[in-house]
Design a protein that fits this description.
404 residues; alpha/beta; Rossmann fold; Pdz3 Domain; eight-stranded mixed sheet; four-stranded antiparallel sheet; 16 strands; 33% helix; globular; disordered N terminus
């Protein structure tokens, strides 16, 4: 199932220029900070390891060690609830330490700031916020994964900031490079984006098996790296600008961001450091078992400033159908162009080439509709899809069950 999911990810990368997010396979590269890259530290279940010393610390002790840090990147795996609970614990510890906490969010472009302000100011219910902020347009992962963080922020008046850039801008960078951007596209990214390093290129290639059917050519890899570095630079820049403009002397901007933008300090931290004379730090949760179930006992010390050990998650908390739709690429937006092996859709008999018309009687006109509808599903439900296959409409019963 892991291989199938990765292939779907790569397929989507090629289509829309999205980013690769680090997994459990890149924990032992001798890259990054020269003082830490040639040694390892233990991974402690439910413990935080300070990679500078190798010591295990509490959340409160970690907050104390961050007393002079202004930018704090916390990596995540988007559909693992334990990662988001780590993010919340870190935010709570910093708040309890008396810091002025600010939260930067990968899932929102900076152009959506008004929606986040309305949420923190208490002007909307949860459902109103999800709808008006277009959560399932800009992000797509289930709101419930992030709900506790958003509620805590509102209850304690912690300001939240969108730090991303419109997705179509990064896609344009991937396709045609920087010099051919339109003025309207260029205004959404920093004036300078540092090119990828040899270390970053090697790490990126390690995400793909050499015998992968979608193994990267140099040209394709270069395009994806342009997109990745643009995303890194833009999110770091926007987080920094929000911190400098809105934060006080004791403020710390906690940026919730995919782990692939954080690992080894080669992503957002590297892109942002030239513009910031303060200190930057990172925290990345690491599961204690890899995708085969084998134990992970150590990680390279340069992986992040802090490592939080987590149990392996065998299943996602919330279901996803496991398909990619045609979207804006053709004249049938809800035509299924990719199906993950072992997914709910696969086991229900939904086929590539089917046009998805409705789910449980709700019309599906876009990927946003699909994500919004599926967000309400829970394991054990049974859904009904109406599809058009070979020119004929037919119903498909979808048992919403985990794969054994």
């Amino acid at each position: 199932m892991y291989i199938a999911k990765r292939l779907v990810l790569v397929f989507c990368l090629l289509l829309v220029g999205s980013t690769v997010f680090a997994g459990q396979s890149d924990l032992h590269h001798a890259i990054g900070d020269p003082d830490r890259k040639n040694r390892s530290v233990d991974v402690v279940l439910d413990g935080i390891v300070d990679t500078a010393t190798g010591n295990t610390v509490t959340p409160a002790e970690m907050a104390a060690r961050l007393s002079d840090v202004g930018l704090f990147f916390i990596g995540e795996t988007h559909t693992n609830i334990d990662y988001h609970r780590v993010q919340l614990r870190a935010i709570q510890a910093l708040h309890a330490a008396g810091r002025e906490v600010m939260i930067g969010l990968e899932m929102f472009p900076y152009t959506q700031q008004a929606s986040l302000d309305a949420w923190i100011d208490g002007n909307q219910s949860e459902q109103e916020f999800v709808d008006k902020a277009e959560w399932y347009t800009y992000w797509g992962y289930n709101w419930e994964y992030y709900r506790e963080i958003f509620v805590f922020a509102r209850e304690h008046g912690i300001r939240m900031y969108g730090v991303n850039t419109p997705r179509e801008v990064v896609s344009a960078v991937r396709k045609k490079g920087f010099k051919d951007l339109t003025p309207e596209e260029a205004e959404h990214i920093p004036h300078q984006v540092l090119p990828p390093t040899d270390e970053q290129r090697a790490m990126y290639r390690s995400f793909f098996d050499p015998d992968d059917a979608l193994h990267m050519s140099d040209e394709r890899l270069d395009g994806m790296l342009r997109a990745q570095t643009t995303w890194d630079a833009t999110m770091g820049w926007n987080a920094l600008q929000a911190l400098l403009k809105n934060g006080g002397d004791d403020a710390i901007m906690v940026v919730l961001i995919g782990s692939g933008h954080v690992t080894y300090g080669l992503g957002a931290e590297r892109q942002t450091a030239p513009y910031y004379d303060g200190k930057i730090a990172s925290l990345i949760p690491v599961q204690i078992n890899d995708d085969t179930g084998a134990p992970i006992k150590t990680v390279q010390a340069s992986y992040a400033n802090f490592i939080w050990g987590l149990p392996k998650a065998d299943y996602e908390i919330y279901p996803s159908l496991g398909v990619s739709l045609m979207g804006k690429l053709g004249d049938e937006p809800t035509k299924i162009i990719q199906r993950s092996g072992g997914s709910i859709a696969d086991r229900a008999g939904i086929e590539v080439g089917d046009v998805l018309l409705s789910l449980n009687g709700e019309t599906v006109e876009s990927g946003v509709d699909l994500r919004r509808i599926v967000s309400g599903w829970r394991w054990g439900d049974v859904a009904t899809a109406l599809v058009r296959r070979d020119g004929k409409e037919q119903e498909v019963i979808i048992p919403v069950r985990r794969e054994l």
